[in-house]
Amino acid sequence: FIPANSHEAYWETILAGATNLTAGPDGDLHLTGDFIRVNAAQTVAGSTDVFDISRGFAFLATQLAGDAFAVDIGGTLSGGDDLVNFADSTASGPQIFGDAETHAGRLNGGADTINVTGGLSGAFIMGDARDTRGILVGGADTINISTTSASNLASGSYSGDNDENTGDTTGGNDKINFTGTGTSFDPALFNISGDSISVGSGGAGGFL
């Protein structure tokens, strides 16, 4: 049995500095480049990490945050300029966030590059974070999506900064590029935004 704080310290020691993470086709993946969680009163900076991920089986979970899974209230994370290369031959949508999955503290986004090819149905791909409840200063991210079928994009969400913004977001200078045969930009098919997919939710306001 390893206490939660020891578990966190163990992995953050291993992930310190620039890291190259490679993963193959099988097994669920939950990856972060630098920190598990940025706690209150911590001020930290992520490194320039590289993720090379190749998936090959349907219904496998892929959850990836370039720098940390979470930033608590009172914590500050400055994200590194990470590179994510993700290829999936199935229709399993990945969840990829350039800096953090969720944050209630301050997140200064890095200039991340996310390259995704293959199955994307139900994907969440955000340049900085999925859920912003604190302060986000978005980085200058580049998201490149390549698919051979419009149906691969179904129910997916792609944004330069975040998915749900109930905090305070300053959008970054982002680029989202879609390529491939059969790609459709029918707004009923998927969600795309340069900054936030939604602002304010469940009675909580948000600023953009």
Your description of this structure?
With 208 residues, the protein is mainly beta. It has 1 helix and 23 strands. The protein has one helix at residues 4-15; strands at residues 20-23, 29-32, 35-38, 43-45, 50-55, 62-65, 68-71, 76-78, 83-88, 95-97, 100-103, 106-108, 113-118, 124-126, 129-132, 135-137, 142-146, 157-159, 162-165, 168-170, 175-179, 191-193, 196-199. The strands form 4 sheets. Strands 1-5-9-13-17-21 form a 6-stranded parallel sheet, with no helix packed on it. The chain is globular, with a radius of gyration of 16 Å.
Topology (SSEs and partners):
Blueprint: H1 4-15, E1 20-23, E2 29-32, E3 35-38, E4 43-45, E5 50-55, E6 62-65, E7 68-71, E8 76-78, E9 83-88, E10 95-97, E11 100-103, E12 106-108, E13 113-118, E14 124-126, E15 129-132, E16 135-137, E17 142-146, E18 157-159, E19 162-165, E20 168-170, E21 175-179, E22 191-193, E23 196-199
Parallel strand pairs: 1-5, 2-6, 3-7, 4-8, 5-9, 6-10, 7-11, 8-12, 9-13, 10-14, 11-15, 12-16, 13-17, 14-18, 15-19, 16-20, 17-21, 18-22, 19-23
